[in-house]
Amino acid sequence: MANVEREDSRVHQETLRLNKYLAIAGVGSRRKNDELILSGAVKINGKVVQELGVKINPHKDKVSVNGQPVEVNQKSYYILLNKPKDCITTVSDERGRPTVMDYVRVRDRIYPVGRLDRNTTGVLLLTNDGELANGLIHPKNEIERVYRVRLESGLLDEDLVALKRGVRLEDGLAKPKDVAVIPGTKRAEIVLALGEGRNREVRRMFEELGYELKGLERILFAGLTTEGLSRGEWRNLKNSEVQHLRELAGVK
């Protein structure tokens, strides 16, 4: 696959900046990695390095973060999962609850891009490309998220107007990019588009207006849908889809 070959070529360079190496390894964005370096959490060949801009040889140098070895995977993963209900959007759960990793089993370590509530279903991306993941969840990029909401009771006209104007939450105004009632649902099913991904934002908006949710599904994220995937099924993204995500996230 072309995107994998490009990723490998970066790793096979003679030297790489340390923050870039960590980003390729899925640790985080380059800016976040700079913060890790300055904090003293990163070691090269067993020695703490706090100098920004330092370069390493990926073939010879051993890198660790907080005592854990960091190695660049030889393959980059870009996966779309149709997340089912009753699973946690984490790599592991200390209480033993099912996680999305129980559905997506690959050889290397990958991570969810952002979070979906335990009982929220639909589009979820997983990757080991830390730089891309950070760009997709950063508020400044306003990556579109579209949700299908099922309510216990029909939405009143005044509350539809309130949604379109924006709902005041404890962490600020939540204003959808678009809101529409699905015809034939007795106003109990709503499609709502957001340009950010605050914690439980959709649920909190409707709760603030006095509604109880029966179901919540993310039907689109960054232009991607779960078309062709049943609940719990996943697929690798196409090269063209990965390139599109990079453009949206501002990643070269």
What distinguishing features does this structure have?
Alpha-Beta Plaits, single chain, elongated, Structural Genomics Hypothetical 15.5 Kd Protein In mrcA-pckA Intergenic Region, Chain A, alpha+beta, four-stranded antiparallel sheet, 7 helices, 252 residues, disordered N terminus
Mean pLDDT, to the nearest integer, reads: 90
Beta-strand percentage range? 25-35%
Tell me the number of helical segments per DSSP (H or I, 4 or more residues long): 7
Helical coverage, percent range: 25-40%
What is the CATH third-level topology name of the largest domain? Alpha-Beta Plaits
Tally of strands: 16
CATH architecture of the largest domain: 2-Layer Sandwich
The protein's oligomeric status is single chain
The low-pLDDT segments are: 1-12
Give a brief rundown of this model:
With 252 residues, this protein is α+β, with helices and mostly antiparallel strands.
Describe this structure in words.
The chain has helices at residues 2-11, 18-24, 30-39, 130-137, 157-165, 201-208, 239-249, and strands at 16-17, 42-44, 47-48, 55-56, 63-65, 68-70, 78-83, 111-112, 121-127, 145-151, 167-169, 172-174, 178-181, 189-194, 213-221, 234-236. By secondary structure, the chain is α+β, with helices and mostly antiparallel strands. It folds into three domains: 2-70, Structural Genomics Hypothetical 15.5 Kd Protein In mrcA-pckA Intergenic Region, Chain A; 78-139 and 224-249, Pseudouridine synthase I, catalytic domain, N-terminal subdomain (Alpha-Beta Plaits); 144-221, Alpha-Beta Plaits, CATH 3.30.70. Strands 7, 8, 9, 10, 13, 14, 15 and 16 form an eight-stranded mixed β-sheet that branches. A hairpin with a 2-residue loop joins strand 11 and strand 12 (172-174). Helix 2 (18-24) crosses helix 3 and helix 4 (130-137) crosses helix 7. The longest helix is centred in the C-terminal third of the chain and has 11 residues, at 239-249.
